[in-house]
Amino acid sequence: MASVAAQLAKDRSAALGLGTNSNPAKYLDQSFEELQAQCLASKTLFEDPTFPAAQSSLGVNDLGPKSEKVQGLEWKRPAEIKANPQFINEGANRADVRQGSLGDCWFLCSIASLTLNEEYLCQVVPMDQGFDNNYAGIFHFRFWQYGQWVDVVVDDRLPTKKGKLLFVKSTTASEFWSALLEKAYAKLNGSYEALKGGLTVEALEDFTGGVGELYYFQNAPGNLFQVIQKALLAKSLVTCSTKSESGSGEIVVSTNVVKNHAYSLTGAVEVIYQGSTVQIVRVRNPWGYKEWNGAWSDNSPEWNEVDGDVKAQLNLQCEDGETWMPFSSFLVEFYRVEICNLNLESVCCNDRHVWCLMGFNGRWTSGVTAGGCKGNMTFWTNPQFRINLHEPDEGYNGPIGDPCCSILVTLMQKERRKKKPQGQDLLNIGYYIYKVPKQVQTDLQLGKDFFRKNKEVACLDIYKNHREVSKRFLLPVGNYVIVPTTYKPCEEADFFLRVFTEKDAKALEFGNVVQANPYQPLSSSEPKMEAQSVSEEPEGEEREELSVEDLRSVLNQKLQNYPDIKCDGFGVRTCREMINLMDMDGTGTLSAEEFQILWRKLQHYMKIFLEVDGNDSGSIDAHEMRNALQSAGFSLNVRIQEAIIQRYVSGGLSVHFEDFIACLMRLEMLFKMFDLLDTNKSGNISLSLSEWLCAALI
User: What is the pLDDT of residue 219?
Assistant: First the structure.
């Protein structure tokens, strides 16, 4: 219940503009300004209770309490490490990032790349903080997280050994911005250990909100050098990675290249050498040393045969981990390039466009929306997002001349890094895109028949266990549905889906409709529904009023005449739900007429239950609950369906008969209450705290 309210509050804040880069949300509800002011007023240094200087912030395995890496570790503030500490010394640059003993070179490469884009650097690292005026042991940083910007607060107690920083450090010993940024990112992801291993594009997207691309050399395009060059000219952030056949640990080979390691890619140029054009790229090792020692390295003879001005501009000789190398050698030593595009035109087209972005937060929930990939019987239950491509791009036509639209679809799984120390790795994720025929006009989720009869028009090439998967498509004008999935059914995770189009498009979540038209018997003279083994009128009509216990006794006696209903009888709580629905005079009992209407309603719902329970198990599968609810007259969005499953599902992802009836009774009561309170029929109600409590406690 509390989690639902928290999510609703978050959604409402986002609708009011909270979470933009100019107005970031406060991570864990911590306000930097308020906390800093409190510390200054009390003349104390900030100590962060949400990410304390303790074992819990380090990790549980590689950085667990028994790990050799944490033995002798001390948490110290910068002033205890170096006299006259500075937040930033003479500007933040890629030389300020040197890797420590934490295996997060992927993250440090992204920091080094971030320093090449001052605009985004200043957005992530607010420059108006330091160790001089208003110093209170508190710092803050901003990250993009699944569609919104968040401001993360940390104290400045850092892990050290023998008085030196244990993790990332600057080449300038008195500079601490990179170490504090690493701590903030560790807090965002749950622990320092959670930062071990990853794709650099993940952090780059968290720094910018950009769109990632991965190029594996085994199937890279022939113009990869031009792709890299264009991305760097567009101020995109680019990194690259090596690997070894052994696949274990970081290994330095004879060329001084570190295998199983991530590098920043900071330059791509063509130079004239011995009358021919040579393509060279500049790579940087986040260690700050161990540079490529082959052709075009700092002291190689190739530099003596190029134009003097070119040499002076490019050949900067120093042991800083950064050097040039031939693109041909780069393709041999490395195996992957990651690009974070800050402007989509750098990846999708040659001209500048104002792109249309649509974003959706969703969740794969076991028993509701975790249907797995195509081929699983529950595939149709996956979340569905409709997009209307009604305005074709200029100059784009399909193979048969149809006007087409460019569309880029990215799918992210959320918060998996936080769960990594507990063994919950990234899931294999992907998506399918289906064309929705014009004759299919519905706001409800598409059912299994649609997916059985229709084939997808586009999809990802392969499911991947990456945080984000993306691909660009060219689709004819029309209506489509995007179905994001995990590879296996019943795998749970939150996700964020982004859809980019060159022209204006409309998108919404299928099934985002909430309405009810439940079965309403009008009077006792109405013809009865066929009962399976009972023809007589229900007992209880002769009683003037039925209490909860009376109702329970009468209904349980009647259920004995329905052998197909496998139920031990109704409990007091379910009977109370029935009375709450039918009792309009506040007596807490049912009159004979109210009981008669209730009984007909129950007969109708029993028929639906038996139809859905095709195998006579006495319960219905959680995935089938959506169809059962629709048959009962309820059209509900995914969030409500998830809440229902959490409340009423039993072991084995099934809903038993009594729970099914209790669910319908409560749903109808809630709709009825809302309708009564929505006096002007606006679709919104306003309640005082007292009114809310009275309504919610019914």
Answer: 85
CB under 8 Å to 380, separation ≥6 — which residues?
371, 446, 447, 448, 450, 451
How many other CB atoms are there within 10 angstroms of residue 74's CB atom?
Answer: 15
Which is catalytic among the residues 189, 285, 341, 382?
285
Nearest to 114, CA basis, from 227, 255, 235: 235
Mean pLDDT of 388-403: 72
* Residue keyed to tokens 């002007």: 680
Q: What is the tens place of the pLDDT at every residue in 574-589?
A: 999 999 888 877 788 9
189-213 core/surface letters (b: 16 or more CB in 10 A; e: else): bbbbbbbbebbbbbbbbbbbbbbbb
Sign of CA dihedral 616, 619, 623, 624: positive
Please write the tens of the pLDDT for every residue from 220-237. 888 999 989 988 988 888
What Cα–Cα distance (Å) separates residue 406 from each residue in 147, 210, 344, 386? 21, 18, 12, 16
Angle, alpha carbons 552-558-560 (nearest 5°): 105
The CA–CA distances, whole Å, from 601 to 64, 210, 518, 583, 645 equal: 58, 53, 9, 15, 22
For residue 376, the tally of other CB atoms under 10 A from its CB is 18
Three state DSSP letters for 623-673: HHHHHHHHHCCEECCHHHHHHHHHHHCECCCEEEHHHHHHHHHHHHHHHHH
Q: How far does Cα 367 stand from its chain's mean position?
A: 19
Let me know: does 143 contact 188? Beta carbons within 8 Å. Answer: yes
The amino acid at 612: V
Give me the mean pLDDT over the 591-597 stretch: 89
Amino acid of residue 371: G
Helix/strand/coil percent split, the chain, to 5 = 35, 25, 45
Q: Among this protein's residues, is 466 annotated catalytic?
A: no
To the query of whether residue 105 is one of the catalytic residues in this protein, the response is yes
Active-site annotation holds for 285: yes
284-319 b/e (C-beta count within 10 Å ≥ 16 → b): bbbbbebbbebbbbbebebbeebeeeeeeebbeeee
Q: Which regions of the chain carry the CATH code 1.10.238.10?
A: 516-696
The alpha carbon torsion through 71, 75, 78, 82 (nearest 10 deg) reads -40
Look at residue 533 and tell me whether its pLDDT is greater than 70: no
- Which pair of tokens denotes residue 437? 């025929």
Q: Which residue spans of the chain are classified as CATH 3.90.70.10?
A: 211-341
Q: Which two tokens stand for residue 56?
A: 């819990």
Q: Which residue has the tokens 């009468």?
A: 554
Q: How far apart are CA 312 and CA 306, in angstroms?
A: 10
What fold characterizes domain 353-511?
A: Jelly Rolls (2.60.120)
Q: Which of 39, 117, 261, 361 is catalytic?
A: 261
The arrangement of secondary structure in 211-341, i.e. its CATH architecture, is: Alpha-Beta Complex (3.90)
Domain 516-696 bears CATH identifier 1.10.238.10: yes
Please give the model's pTM, rounded to 2 decimal places: 0.80
* Contacts of residue 217, Cβ cutoff 8 Å, sequence gap at least 6: 224, 331, 334, 335, 336, 337
Q: Which of 153, 279, 172, 175 is nearest to 228 (CA)?
A: 279
CA distances from 202 to 63, 64, 347, 487, 512 (A): 22, 25, 17, 21, 30
Q: Which of 105, 109, 348, 405 is catalytic?
A: 105
Q: How many CB atoms lie within 10 A of CB 103?
A: 18
Q: Are 34 and 140 in contact (CB under 8 A)?
A: no
